Amino acid sequence: MIESPWSFVLTAIFLATAVLCALHLAQSHRTPAAVTTESVHASHNGPIATAVHVNHLVMSLAMLLMVWRPVGTAGTWIQVALFALFGVVMLLGLPTVHAVGERVAVVSHVMLNAAMIWMLLAMPLLMGHDMGGSADAHAGHHGGGTGDEMAMEMTPTPVWAEAVNWGAVVLSAVIAVWWLVRLLRDPAHRAHSACHLLMAAGMALMLALM
Q1: Please, are residues 20 and 194 in contact by the beta-carbon 8 Å criterion?
Q2: CA atoms within 13 A on the CB side of 79
Q3: Which residues cross the membrane (predicted)?
Q4: Cα(92)–Cα(117) distance, rounded to whole angstroms?
Q5: What's CA 78's distance to the chain center, in Å?
Q6: Of 36, 73, 80, 111, which is least packed with CB atoms within 10 Å of its CB?
Q7: 145-169 in b/e burial notation, b at 16+ Cβ within 10 A?
Q8: Could you give the CA distance from residue 108 to residue 186 in angstroms, rounded to a whole number?
Q9: Within its chain, how far is the Cα of 20 from the centroid?
């Protein structure tokens, strides 16, 4: 789906986020529930943190798949439903987060889910093919299809779709910058911030390449 060298860059990014999210999940299960130090926030530990890390782990794996091959219509709608559900769960957990910075963090995750859903639904428009086509047809479109076949399959991207997509790119980039600031200001949670920084940056890059 994505041409090299960007496919390898995105693979490295989403492998890193998948590993970091898996480590965070493992660590959260080892953290005693009674821990209430000032450095521990609801968005770092507890149910909302688990939802965030599971969400980003699944998103990382979905992105890795998307980089290398199309998922088809059924796969697209399953992912849309899944990331919409994760978004609702995170929004429902928002009242349990009290610090302003932590609330912004949760909202940023929901926004990335919205960007992911946009990417899934808009991919046919952005990449100039019909989502109803088969995976093999898409593979031919990106690989060994003839010039006539490609000309027939390619359709111009609507202006409105390009505008919305670049809006999603800018939003993801802003979220990445916000996590970069948190990474620099909060040494105690640098791995946590780095994970979300990479996810937002990877989202912005992948949207920009489409």
Answers
A1: yes
A2: 25
A3: 6-26, 47-68, 74-94, 106-127, 163-181
A4: 19
A5: 15
A6: 36
A7: beeeeeeebeeebeeebeeebeebb
A8: 17
A9: 14
